[in-house]
Design goal:
two-stranded antiparallel sheet, alpha+beta, 5-stranded antiparallel beta sheet, single chain, 111 residues
Length: 111
Amino acid sequence: QLMLDRGRVGEAQVIPAGWLEDIFQDPGTAPWPGEARDGRRPYYRSFVWGHGDGHGTVTARGVHGQFIYVAPASGVVIVLLSSWPNADGGAPGVGEAESLALLKAIETAVR
């Protein structure tokens, strides 16, 4: 929620606004390994994965399926806590792609 609120809690700026703007406004790093098929420019910045979707959507990720999904354009923050068998999923239908699809579906549903 702090990211969505650009580092503010009430009147107090507790995270530097410039740090957050740097994350949300990144245009996507050129040396990203591989092209996104849908025209996005994904990036990694300050321990945050940017979706490069032009809407400032970012994700903080933990090993074994933890995600904090922040979608400023929708005003949505979603926390997904998982316990995957392996760091990359490790079971049919379990992994990063499936989790990101679920998060996007939830964002769409609550918008």
